[in-house]
Amino acid sequence: MASNAATMGNLPSGNGICTTIPDILYLPELVFGGLVWILVASTLVVPANPQGWVMFVSVFCFVLTFIWMVVFACGGHHNKPGWAAADFVYHGIAAFFYLSASVSLARVTMEMKDEVFQNYQLDISAVVFSYMATLLYFIHTILSAIRWKSF
Protein backbone atom coordinates (compact mmCIF):
# COMPACT_ATOMS: atom_id res chain seq x y z
CA MET A 1 0.00 0.00 0.00
CA ALA A 2 1.10 3.50 -0.69
CA SER A 3 0.62 4.81 2.82
CA ASN A 4 4.07 6.08 3.68
CA ALA A 5 4.65 9.61 4.95
CA ALA A 6 5.55 10.93 1.50
CA THR A 7 2.08 10.18 0.12
CA MET A 8 0.13 11.24 3.22
CA GLY A 9 0.31 14.89 2.14
CA ASN A 10 -1.24 14.25 -1.27
CA LEU A 11 -4.93 13.78 -1.93
CA PRO A 12 -5.44 10.82 -4.26
CA SER A 13 -7.68 10.74 -7.29
CA GLY A 14 -8.84 8.02 -9.64
CA ASN A 15 -7.83 4.52 -8.62
CA GLY A 16 -5.58 6.05 -5.96
CA ILE A 17 -8.50 6.17 -3.53
CA CYS A 18 -8.51 2.35 -3.56
CA THR A 19 -4.86 2.10 -2.54
CA THR A 20 -4.14 4.91 -0.08
CA ILE A 21 -4.84 5.34 3.60
CA PRO A 22 -7.37 6.71 4.76
CA ASP A 23 -9.25 6.68 1.45
CA ILE A 24 -9.37 2.90 1.29
CA LEU A 25 -11.88 3.13 4.16
CA TYR A 26 -14.59 4.63 1.89
CA LEU A 27 -15.83 1.24 0.71
CA PRO A 28 -16.10 -0.39 4.17
CA GLU A 29 -17.85 2.75 5.44
CA LEU A 30 -20.38 2.43 2.63
CA VAL A 31 -20.86 -1.30 3.23
CA PHE A 32 -21.38 -1.04 7.00
CA GLY A 33 -23.48 2.11 6.70
CA GLY A 34 -25.64 0.44 4.06
CA LEU A 35 -26.08 -2.61 6.28
CA VAL A 36 -27.23 -0.40 9.17
CA TRP A 37 -29.66 1.34 6.86
CA ILE A 38 -31.08 -1.97 5.55
CA LEU A 39 -31.32 -3.65 8.96
CA VAL A 40 -33.00 -0.73 10.70
CA ALA A 41 -35.40 -0.28 7.79
CA SER A 42 -36.47 -3.92 8.04
CA THR A 43 -37.36 -3.84 11.74
CA LEU A 44 -40.53 -2.84 13.52
CA VAL A 45 -40.51 0.85 14.44
CA VAL A 46 -42.39 1.70 17.62
CA PRO A 47 -43.72 5.32 17.82
CA ALA A 48 -41.49 6.27 20.76
CA ASN A 49 -38.50 4.73 19.05
CA PRO A 50 -35.46 6.88 18.13
CA GLN A 51 -34.69 4.77 15.07
CA GLY A 52 -35.63 7.72 12.88
CA TRP A 53 -32.36 9.36 13.96
CA VAL A 54 -30.48 6.15 13.16
CA MET A 55 -32.07 6.06 9.70
CA PHE A 56 -31.24 9.73 9.10
CA VAL A 57 -27.61 9.22 10.11
CA SER A 58 -27.13 6.06 8.07
CA VAL A 59 -28.77 7.49 4.93
CA PHE A 60 -27.08 10.91 5.31
CA CYS A 61 -23.62 9.41 5.83
CA PHE A 62 -24.11 6.83 3.08
CA VAL A 63 -25.09 9.44 0.50
CA LEU A 64 -22.46 11.99 1.52
CA THR A 65 -19.69 9.39 1.72
CA PHE A 66 -20.61 8.16 -1.75
CA ILE A 67 -20.56 11.73 -3.12
CA TRP A 68 -17.29 12.44 -1.30
CA MET A 69 -15.74 9.27 -2.76
CA VAL A 70 -16.89 10.22 -6.28
CA VAL A 71 -15.41 13.73 -5.90
CA PHE A 72 -12.09 12.24 -4.84
CA ALA A 73 -12.19 9.56 -7.56
CA CYS A 74 -12.89 12.16 -10.26
CA GLY A 75 -10.13 14.46 -8.99
CA GLY A 76 -12.50 17.32 -8.17
CA HIS A 77 -10.36 18.34 -5.21
CA HIS A 78 -7.37 19.45 -7.34
CA ASN A 79 -5.05 18.42 -4.46
CA LYS A 80 -5.72 21.57 -2.42
CA PRO A 81 -5.26 21.68 1.39
CA GLY A 82 -8.83 22.92 1.94
CA TRP A 83 -10.12 19.57 0.74
CA ALA A 84 -7.94 17.74 3.25
CA ALA A 85 -9.42 19.89 6.02
CA ALA A 86 -12.95 19.33 4.71
CA ASP A 87 -12.29 15.57 4.62
CA PHE A 88 -11.24 15.69 8.27
CA VAL A 89 -14.26 17.77 9.30
CA TYR A 90 -16.77 15.62 7.40
CA HIS A 91 -15.49 12.35 8.82
CA GLY A 92 -15.38 13.82 12.33
CA ILE A 93 -19.02 14.88 12.06
CA ALA A 94 -19.96 11.49 10.60
CA ALA A 95 -18.17 9.67 13.44
CA PHE A 96 -20.00 11.81 16.02
CA PHE A 97 -23.37 11.24 14.32
CA TYR A 98 -22.79 7.50 14.09
CA LEU A 99 -21.73 7.32 17.73
CA SER A 100 -24.93 9.05 18.85
CA ALA A 101 -27.03 6.83 16.58
CA SER A 102 -25.24 3.68 17.79
CA VAL A 103 -25.84 4.50 21.44
CA SER A 104 -29.54 5.23 20.90
CA LEU A 105 -29.95 2.09 18.77
CA ALA A 106 -28.24 -0.02 21.45
CA ARG A 107 -30.57 1.41 24.10
CA VAL A 108 -33.66 0.64 22.03
CA THR A 109 -32.38 -2.87 21.32
CA MET A 110 -31.82 -3.56 25.00
CA GLU A 111 -35.37 -2.41 25.77
CA MET A 112 -36.96 -4.63 23.12
CA LYS A 113 -35.29 -7.93 24.04
CA ASP A 114 -38.64 -9.29 25.24
CA GLU A 115 -40.37 -8.35 21.98
CA VAL A 116 -40.39 -10.29 18.69
CA PHE A 117 -37.17 -12.31 18.55
CA GLN A 118 -36.57 -11.75 14.82
CA ASN A 119 -36.71 -7.96 15.24
CA TYR A 120 -34.39 -8.27 18.24
CA GLN A 121 -31.85 -10.20 16.14
CA LEU A 122 -32.04 -7.63 13.33
CA ASP A 123 -31.52 -4.82 15.81
CA ILE A 124 -28.53 -6.57 17.38
CA SER A 125 -26.99 -6.89 13.92
CA ALA A 126 -27.73 -3.22 13.23
CA VAL A 127 -26.05 -2.22 16.51
CA VAL A 128 -22.92 -4.22 15.67
CA PHE A 129 -22.68 -2.77 12.17
CA SER A 130 -23.40 0.71 13.49
CA TYR A 131 -20.52 0.52 15.94
CA MET A 132 -18.30 -0.85 13.15
CA ALA A 133 -19.24 2.13 10.97
CA THR A 134 -18.53 4.44 13.91
CA LEU A 135 -15.09 2.89 14.32
CA LEU A 136 -14.32 3.20 10.60
CA TYR A 137 -15.38 6.84 10.50
CA PHE A 138 -13.35 7.55 13.65
CA ILE A 139 -10.22 5.93 12.18
CA HIS A 140 -10.79 7.83 8.94
CA THR A 141 -11.06 11.06 10.96
CA ILE A 142 -7.74 10.46 12.70
CA LEU A 143 -5.94 9.53 9.49
CA SER A 144 -7.49 12.50 7.66
CA ALA A 145 -6.26 14.81 10.43
CA ILE A 146 -2.75 13.41 10.06
CA ARG A 147 -2.91 13.91 6.28
CA TRP A 148 -4.26 17.45 6.70
CA LYS A 149 -1.48 18.39 9.11
CA SER A 150 1.19 16.94 6.80
CA PHE A 151 -0.12 18.87 3.78
UniProtKB/TrEMBL annotation:
Q: Which UniProt keywords apply?
A: Membrane, Transmembrane, Transmembrane helix
Q: Name one GO molecular function term.
A: structural constituent of myelin sheath
Q: What GO cellular component is one of the record's annotations?
A: membrane
**Domain MARVEL per the UniProt entry, residue ranges:** 17-149
- Gene Ontology biological process terms in this record: myelination
The keyword Repeat is assigned to this record: no
**Predominant location of this chain?**
membrane
Bilayer disposition of the protein? Multi-pass membrane protein
Instruction: Please verify whether the record's keywords include Magnesium.
Output: no
Q: What is this protein called?
A: MARVEL domain-containing protein
Originating organism: Muraenolepis orangiensis
